[in-house]
Design a protein that fits this description.
The chain has 90 residues and is mainly α. The protein has helices at residues 2-30, 44-89. Helix 1 (2-30) packs parallel to helix 2.
Length: 90
């Protein structure tokens, strides 16, 4: 019975973080801010989760910078059009 209980705990310590990574990946696919996953182990699965979180943070930062750049370009375009229209009028 001890072996079965140990096997169950061991498999859970691997499967649960992998399921969390899978859910995080699915949320990334749906768009918006990507969630990080909880890291509760110091083994290979924990290292994978840490790498995932680093990737998510980088993607979120790049998405924010891209949106800021797009907004700045929109503003710049509007300003150029406004100035051009002003010159045409006078």
């Amino acid at each position: 019975m001890f072996v079965i209980g140990f096997a169950y705990l061991l498999s859970n310590s691997i499967v649960r973080p992998l399921l969390s990574l899978t859910e995080g990946t699915k949320k990334m696919i749906m768009g918006g801010e990507s969630p990080t996953v909880e890291v509760s182990t110091n083994d290979e699965v924990g290292a994978l989760a840490e790498s995932f979180n680093t990737m998510v943070d980088e993607l979120n930062n790049r998405r924010r910078r891209l949106l800021q750049t797009m907004n700045a370009l929109r503003h710049s375009r509007r300003e150029i059009i406004r100035q051009r229209n002003f010159k045409i009028l006078f």
